[in-house]
């Protein structure tokens, strides 16, 4: 009997180590590697990306990305604190950069490291559109969607055990790890998010943009423009963020909820 109890305590503690609670949904999700280990790797990759790409500074567009980014991160902080998750973002080091690149793309690495490509600006069309994309990308990072992209086979390959990941020096393993955690920043390296993660990021993103003072309905217009852009060559962002018509219907339906949530934080006007 005693042995059985010990065993269940042991099993429970393994599960605890390997799981984390998604503060937006309350769901338990897989977290094999703690932020304290992932974030330094992500920060290093991000810095590397910035040295290898043309960062735009001092322009109205670059300032807009930073300005909207600060509002979205402040919204995330307020939301998490109000919902009992103060300290969730302690290890985050927010950064918002615009790079000169025609790709229609934007992403947020673990720890709040954001990049917008100049190619996405004609589609975002302004602050509220940027806030819609930013809210969505930040939502993926906050919900740790990256780490959940790793398949069981990949976990085995890189030697993942509960609470830890044993990375060998094999660059292939490092690459699987980076892809899974959303660390690989090069174009085409990122794995696509699943539909359910897309839906979750849309919903969280709408709340964040509304608390930041932007009208969440702009999110629906944004994805509509995104799906119409590019003709035969769809925007890069759609290769990592699969989209469909249901998304626009959902966002339209959820927009009033997001506004209601924002009103709890004293936000009464929403910029379009
Ligand atoms: Zn997405």
Automatic annotation (TrEMBL):
GO CC terms of this entry: membrane
Cofactor(s) demanded: Zn(2+)
GO biological process: proteolysis involved in protein catabolic process
Pfam families registered for this protein in UniProt: Peptidase_M48
CDD domains per record: M48C_Oma1_like (cd07331)
InterPro entries in the record: Mito/Outer_Membr_Metalloprot, Peptidase_M48
Highest taxon of source: Bacteria
The family this protein is said to belong to: Belongs to the peptidase M48 family.
Signal peptide bounds: 1-18
Keywords from the named record: Hydrolase, Metal-binding, Metalloprotease, Protease, Signal, Zinc
Domain spans labelled Peptidase M48: 92-254
Textual note on the cofactor: Binds 1 zinc ion per subunit.
Protein name: Peptidase family M48
GO MF, one example: metalloendopeptidase activity
